[in-house]
Design a protein that fits this description.
about 180 residues, alpha+beta, NADH Oxidase, 7 helices, globular
Amino acid sequence: MSDFFDLVKKRQSCRDYDEQRAVEREKLEKIINAALLSPSACNSQPWHFTVVNSKEKSPLIAAAVQKLGLNKFSSSCPAFIVISEESANITSIAGGKIRDQKFAANDIGIATAHIVLGACELGLSTCIMGMFHEEKVKEICAIPKKKRVRLIIAVGYAKSDQLREKKRKSADQTVTYLV
């Protein structure tokens, strides 16, 4: 197992996948199991993961995420994890109303972090995508029309393992310590 902080530094969004390398089902199952262990408000677990890893369906998802000319790289990606929102439990919903928060969105974000870090630990690369043709994705994945697809994660092997420089705001700009 790698050091967590090294893993965080290593993880990056990939936009150039090796089309010749399929993603092993066992690795996808490990990644999903990591997501299933992620915390959620009141243990509501408001998510459903649809794993698309087939020569027939993956190109259809790739086409659906190329909405508005974005995500063209997805054509070379062999697998996708489609995250749809499920109903949260009553405690989470009530707490969200009191706090004027939608905890399900936070919970899905946390699960997404588990997915991309788990994938990186297994030597896979990912890219989180929020722009896609939702109705097409629902049709391809047999997701009920009333459900919402929140994110799609591209999963595959990067053509290159070279790390890019991460451009982030400084701690001075983003952190306040009250001591």
